[in-house]
Amino acid sequence: MNDVLIVGNGPAAHRLAERLIRHGHDARLTLLGEEPEPAYHRALLPAYAAASLPRDALRLPPLPRARVHLNTVVTAVDRRRRRVHAYRNGSATVHRYDTLVLATGARPRIPDIPGLRGPGGSPAPGVTTLRTTADCDRIAGGSVAVLGGGPLAVEAADALAARGTGVTLVCPGPHPLHDRVGDVCGAMLAARLESAGVTVVGGAVAVRRTPDRLELADGTVLRADTLVLCTGVTPDTRLARAAGLDVRHGIVVDDRLRTSDPHVHALGDCAEFDGQTLTGVGGAHDQADTLARVLTGRPASHRRAPEVLRVRTRSADLSCLGSPADFDRPGTRQLTLTDHAGHRYAGVALRDERVTAAVLFGVPQAIATLGLMHRRGRPVPGDLLGLLLDLPPRAASDSAGADPDPMVCLCNGVTRQRLHRAWRDGARTLPALAEETRATTGCGGCGRTVEELCGQWSHESRDRVEETCPAHSS
């Protein structure tokens, strides 16, 4: 018997439980979730905040044969007796384990700025982070300021503008995502956000929050009924540290996701592997896949996947592969395309004709194709410039030709043909396709593509009906 207890009920914990069940784990499997609602897809929170997705559309599929305890706050881990102490709905509970998995995630950082914190250190009224559905529900009023310059800040600002809210994005760099995309692409991104209704204030330092106002260091005062903090996260290592596990920035794990206690594993935002913590849900899914194999007796070891950042907005199709440092490594060849009129940018770093890093903006076909090649270490196509320009593919005469069944969801390995089969079988909406194929439930970056495919196939289906059943003339 190997009873597995998972502390956490987020996407990483859910993925691990799902994979354990798939691999035939037949002992007790229990998840302890702090939130009062079932597991949901956090990457889609900006869309929920914009009211473009209902709450139910965020839900991850139920887990058969798993016991899920919601509204459960874990207070301590007794490693000697292999017990976890918790409170559920105010009552003390104890849970035994053979194997414990810590999937405690990360806590939002709240900057040390006057007016941001209320009693007990939680966000003050009119201030919210963006980690839970409850955080989204606190966003109110006709004007919102989003503080931060990273991908979540960009997604949140764009989503809130889409629902008709007056939005100001206050970012520390000269442009949003400046450290990742540079001056040229950053300026293009800012321009697209402005055209979508977001006021972008770059190079800004917030110094005080007062009711309905945010004050900047240069004396500017911004109207903000709600202030949304997208100012980074910190791995939640409190339980692990109190239990005496090895903790640096995150909970230290080896290539089998084991902590310093062989009966305790960790994964997701709280874990530190090879000196680094995770960025993005894709890496958490890779860890969950590895750990599920380890815990069911299969050979497996974790290796860090290539770094990928995908920004999900209606106004900007943006992807960053690798890290900025990869552009400057010895032996790297760089290719750059700048098209201001077409709102397109591509910066690609190549070594041995393989993508080591890229910044891709407004080139959706290149994002899909190069993203897959980067992940799999495959050589780029011979007509790379044509791909970046979104030209029709040439007839393939080599092994790098067009893929007859392109990958749509990299996180879950879902191809266009797999989606089309599910659509023909009755999954005719984005939530239905997500439940049937798991597309969009990774980083969420393929959501717009899947939605567009739904519309395309629906249109084609209506056309075929009209052709076979023409209207009778009078």
How would the blueprint of this fold be written?
Blueprint: E1 4-7, H1 11-22, E2 29-32, H2 45-49, E3 67-69, E4 72-78, E5 83-88, E6 91-96, E7 99-102, E8 106-108, E9 127-128, H3 133-137, E10 143-147, H4 151-162, E11 166-170, H5 178-195, E12 198-201, E13 206-210, E14 213-216, E15 221-223, E16 226-229, E17 233-235, H6 238-242, E18 251-253, E19 264-266, E20 271-273, E21 276-277, H7 281-295, E22 308-312, E23 317-321, E24 333-339, E25 344-351, E26 354-361, H8 364-376, H9 384-388, E27 407-409, E28 414-415, H10 416-424, H11 430-437, H12 447-468
Describe the structure.
The protein is an alpha/beta fold and 474 residues long. The chain has 3 domains: 4-107 and 233-295, FAD/NAD(P)-binding domain; 110-229, FAD/NAD(P)-binding domain (3-Layer(bba) Sandwich), CATH 3.50.50.60; 408-474, Orthogonal Bundle (Arc Repressor Mutant, subunit A). It is built from 12 helices and 28 strands. The strands form 8 sheets. Strands 3-2-1-7-19 form a 5-stranded parallel β-sheet, with helices on one face. Strands 9-16-10-11-12 form a 5-stranded parallel β-sheet. A 5-stranded antiparallel β-sheet has the order 22-23-26-25-24. α1 packs parallel to α7 (281-295). The chain is globular, with a radius of gyration of 23 Å. The model is unreliable at 395-402 (pLDDT under 50).
Considering the chains and any ligands shown, give keywords for the structure.
FAD/NAD(P)-binding domain, globular, about 25% helix, alpha/beta, 12 helices, about 25% strand, 3 domains, Arc Repressor Mutant, subunit A
